[in-house]
Amino acid sequence: MGSALVGFGKAVPALVVANETLETLVDTSDEWIVTRTGIQSRHVAIEETNADLAEAAARDALGWTNGGFSERRFDASEIDLVVFATITPDTVCPSMAGLLRRRLGLENAIAFDVNAACTGFVYGTTIAESMMAACAPTSAGATGRNPIRRALVIGAERLTRLTNWADRNTCVLFGDGAGAAVLEWDETRPGIMGSFIVNQDDFANALSSPAAYDAPQPFNADGTLKEVPALLGAAEQGIDDELGVAELVGAGRPRQVLYMDGPKVFKFAAEAMTEAVNQVLSRANISLDDVACIIPHQANERIIKYAAKKLNRPMDFFQLSIAHTGNTSAASVPMALCDAYANGRINRGDKIILVAFGGGFTSGAVLYEA
Ligand code: ACO
């Protein structure tokens, strides 16, 4: 018995931006981007909101359209939980999960957001599975809790809103999109067999982005009122210092963008991915030989190549979707998972590993039987 993954969907914005277009924005080349990252193009949301993308992916996963891969059509009233992973919400309140609940009419669902950067979908799936196991109708732990039989887990981003389009180190990497999965508690299937999530402190601020709140406060620290023109907050300055972006902002760089020290993140990512795969295998007590394929976070094809070498597996053991998506953060794993179903590479009974790493630092993996 366990939480089975039974529905999958994805959505991308209409606009496709090829590497050649970025050559006109920054000092880069298609050749550099392809060889250093594996990315050829990405989708950029201009008209679409994060909620629009998430809604389209969720409708596919719920079997309400012909676009996704769903074992059956789920009624809105059957969904008990929505976990929405994102670092680029359209709104802080209501949560993106709350917005989606309303749009889809999920009248029985508990709904909340999760911020674990690119590992968001793995964290979200782990949280949903834990809540389902604790609250399943047959579980001893269910007493006094809402029974959770079905969950919708979303990873959706408009990362290009956080992108500094003048910074060639980052702007070539990111894209927008959404992926969704339906989890169903099933007495007859193992479903999720193991999960592993972990944090490491990002002491060097290798990945950071200040929050976008900008309502000015009228008070000084001693309680006196500020001069009207001097309303801009000292609190933001404190966070900028802590994140290491104060100097960059002082030098005229934009504040609310993603700052990244690529090589430092690369080093963390390469190790974290292998570690997460090995940990989840050991928790589920199975060997990599029993696994059909790995669905990795699509940040850089070279990171996946490094993991393939470490795990002694060929590249075709890994789902590769990065060429036409770029790094879509929390959306990356569920979008790649949807591609794997579309390519017919996942069959009932196959054991699959989802693995990701991201800002925070966060990393983790989920192992499930299809
Ligand atoms: N075009 C041309 N040259 C470039 C570009 C570009 N777009 N970007 C960087 N360069 C240059 C650099 O300036 C540097 O030049 P220099 O040697 O003259 O100083 C040279 O290329 C090499 O730069 P590196 O940063 O060492 O290149 P690297 O091979 O490490 O690739 C990259 C950079 C792609 C960013 C890589 O480090 C990476 O993928 N890191 C991991 C990113 C990641 O996984 N992020 C995930 C988390 S994102 C999230 O959580 C939202």
What does it look like?
A six-stranded mixed sheet has the order 4-1-8-7-5-6, sandwiched between helices. It is 31% helix and 22% strand. It is globular. Strand 5 (81-85), helix 4 (96-104) and strand 6 (110-114) form a beta-alpha-beta unit. The model has no long low-confidence stretch (mean pLDDT 94). The longest helix is centred in the last third of the chain and has 23 residues, at 262-284. With 370 residues, it is α+β, with helices and mostly antiparallel strands. It is built from eleven helices and 14 strands. It binds acetyl coenzyme *A. Residues 28, 32-33, 36-37, 117-118, 168-169, 172, 207, 262-263, 265-266, 269, 299-300, 303, 327, 329, 358-359 line the site of acetyl coenzyme *A.
Topology of helices and strands:
Elements: E1 2-11, E2 15-18, H1 19-23, H2 30-37, E3 41-44, H3 50-61, E4 69-70, E5 81-85, H4 96-104, E6 110-114, H5 120-135, E7 150-158, H6 168-171, E8 176-186, E9 192-199, E10 207-208, H7 234-243, H8 246-250, E11 259-260, H9 262-284, E12 293-296, H10 301-310, H11 332-342, E13 351-358, E14 362-369
The structure holds acetyl coenzyme *A.
